[in-house]
Amino acid sequence: MLDVSQVSHSYAAGGRLWRKPAIPVLQDISFTLEPGMCLGLLGVSGTGKSTLGKIILGLQRPTAGRVSFAGQDWYARDRRARHHMRREVQAVFQDCYSAVNPLMSAGQIIGEPLRNYERLSALEQKRRVAELLEQVGLQASDADKRPAAFSGGQLQRINIARAIALRPKLIVLDEAISSLDMVNQTQILTLLSQLRADYGMSYLFITHHIQAALTISDRMLVMDKGQIVCTADSAAALMSSPHPAVQQLIAARLPEHPSQRLDWSSET
Ligand SMILES: Nc1ncnc2c1ncn2[C@@H]1O[C@H](COP(=O)(O)OP(=O)(O)OP(=O)(O)O)[C@@H](O)[C@H]1O
């Protein structure tokens, strides 16, 4: 469904008097994502995960390579076709507060993609928003509240409701749980797993949080300095990788007390 082929990207370095060489951020990235699958994209800060996420969302044209979705090249299509493609690929970002307009109600936020893509009567729109709110564990009566009235976890549920409103085929979740406390992280992961089971959507789950990736992903890719350095289909395969980038992610999440450490090597 999603085919990322030999994607490389460099950012222009600027420079006032003379042009500095561009800074390479991604090098020769290739992978596929099948329908209904969750692919975890792991790496420490600055490895290029968000840049890759933006390229996959159609927001950043790569310097080289091809991204195709359902057989269509994202960056070769005309504007109208891209408008249609955007319906199928949605996103949830880390900062749940800046992702919403503080002056809009939750109902307006969730209803925005429906207004853009579907011609619903006011009554039908209200019914769909109420349904979406309930699907993400909120209440229909929350539709009238503004973002300031919600906690971070609740607001991220609203962002998820907006992302699933059009029943997309793929959701790019870029550090979508990273700013939440542990209880909310667990609850949102459970919600995402449930929604995927219900609707068969695919996820690209971008994170530096190895436990979260292991919880939700069918396959994991680890990036280091703009390259994929490890591909793993199980926790055991990931945890046994000797690559320093993987070991760094593992070490970053180990609890201080040895008795609390999990024996990942026995997991499949
Ligand atoms: N618009 C931009 N212009 C120039 N350089 C950029 C731009 N966006 C990102 N970069 C640089 O590209 C590199 C990769 O950034 P990116 O945000 O993709 O990494 P990341 O793995 O998602 O990191 P983080 O988890 O901290 O967001 C970094 O060195 C960053 O400074």
Automatic annotation (TrEMBL):
PROSITE patterns for this protein: ABC_TRANSPORTER_1, ABC_TRANSPORTER_2
Keyword tags: ATP-binding, Ion transport, Nickel, Nickel transport, Nucleotide-binding, Transport
Transmembrane segments: none
Top-rank lineage group of the source organism: Bacteria
Residue span(s) of domain ABC transporter: 2-250
Pfam families per record: ABC_tran (PF00005)
Gene3D superfamilies, A to Z: P-loop containing nucleotide triphosphate hydrolases
Example of a GO MF term: ATP binding
Protein name: Nickel transport system ATP-binding protein
Organism whose genome encodes this protein: Paenibacillus hunanensis
